[in-house]
Fold this protein.
Amino acid sequence: MAEKKVEIIDEDGRITIAEDVIGAIARIAAEKVGGIAHSGGTSGGLKSIFGGEDLAPNIKTELSEEAVRLELRIAVEYGYPVHEVAQGVQRNVQQDIERLAGITVSGVDVYVKKVVPPHTHEAEGE
């Protein structure tokens, strides 16, 4: 199966951006939002105290010639307004991908998969 990528062609030449790069930008942008449970930089990802589920945002991308649409599944720390965290994720992801990759974002769908106790990552040895 061929690697998914976005190509930007202009008068200076061609720029190719792998789908994984878009996903990495989206993950970092999402993790900057206050209240999101995230990996905190651990190599194996952050595991919840509830069944060992990875709390890092899961990201799916749909690429077209004109734009990218993303779906993120996130966990939110208890005490934060869930809808505000999700809106912050939408805003950060769209702004960062458009600014850093030069790709139009047609939409960012956010699915909140879990609410976790605050600072679960500290209990995991971070």
Notes: The longest helix spans residues 82-101. The helical segments are 19-31, 82-101, 120-123. The domain at 5-123 is CATH 3.30.70.1350 (Alpha-Beta Plaits).
